[in-house]
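Problem 12. The chain below contains 343 residues. Write out its predicted structure in C-alpha cell notation.
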Amino acid sequence: MSGRSVTIVDVARHAGVSKTTASDALSGAGRVSARTRARIEEVAARLGYHPNTAARHLRNSRVGAVGLYLPRQVMGTGFYMEFAFGVAERARAAGLDLTLLGPDSSGIKAPRLRVDGLIILDPILDDPVVADLLGGGVPVVTVGHHRGSGPMPRGVLSADHVETTNLLLEHLGSRGSTMPGLIVPDGDFLTDWSLTLQETYERWCSAHGVKPATRGVAVDASPETLDAVVRDLMASRPDLDALVCAPDGSALRALGTLRSLGRRVGEELLLASCVASQSLEMCDPPITAVDLRPRVYGASAAELLAEILAADAAGDEPITRVHPAELRVRASTGSGPAEPARP
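Solution.
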C-alpha cells in the first residue's frame, strides 16, 4: 500500500476483523484467540504496518516500558540472559520498551524508573530491592513465588519445581541410583526455586530412608571453589552413586572434577543438572538436565505482564500460571528404557 502509511483500519479490513480486535491482537491486549492473533500479525507484517506506540501510550497515560530485575549473582549466566531475550522479544511485540534493573536499584521507586510494570526473576528472600519494587505502585509479575514479606505481586509465573525435581530423582532411581547427592545455591541465593529443590530432595531422602548429602555453593562460584565443594562432598559421602547440580554451569564443571577423581560418569556414577544449556549437550558424556526453556519462559512472563497491564484492574489474589519444563535424558545418567520427558 504505497503513497500513505498503513493504518490499523487497513489491517482490520484485510484481516476481516474489527478495528478493536486488530488493535487488541497487535498490542497483546483483550481476549483474542491465538489463531486470530496470528492471522492479524501476519496481515500487519505483510502490509508493513508499524503502530504509533508513542501515541497509544499517551492516550493510555502510560510510559510504554516495563522493567526486568535480575539478581546480581546471575546477571551474566546463560539461563538468565536467554530469559531476558525472551522478555525483550515479547515486550517489543507488544510495543513496550524494556529497562533492565540491577542491584543498585534499591530505594528507587517505580515512578522514578518510568515503567508501567515490572518482572522480577527469582525473587531472593529478604532482598531489599525486591521489597522496594513490590511496593512501588505498579503491577509486578514474579517468576518464581515470592517467599518474602511485604506486598504481593499481581502475577506469578513458575515451573512446578516439586514435580520436576521428583521426576529427576525418579529417573535416577530407574537407572540404579539409591543415594544421590545435591549441590544447591548457598544462603546468598535463597529463592523459591533453590529452596524447593532442597526441600523436595530432603523429602525424597526421608521417604527412601537415606541421609541427605547436600552442599551449598555460590551461584557465581569460581571453578576452583566448585571443584573443592565437589571433592569434599564425594570424600565425605563415598556411598553416593549420583550427583545433581543446581547452579547454572555447575554440572559441567563437576564433570571434570569427577573424572579427575577416577569416577566413570554415566556408568558407576550418574550426573544431572537442574539447568539446561547447549554446552551440556556437547560434552562427553552429554549431561541429563531439566530444561526450563528460558527464552519461552521470559516471553511468557512478558505476556502475563502485558495482559495484566491491559486489564488494568487489581485483584485480591495474584494471577498464577505454571510454566512447563522438560527432562532431557542423556548419557550422563546411564542407559535404560525410554522415559517420558515431560512431567
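Discussion. The chain has 13 helices and twelve strands. Students who got a different answer should revisit the alignment rule from Section 12.3.
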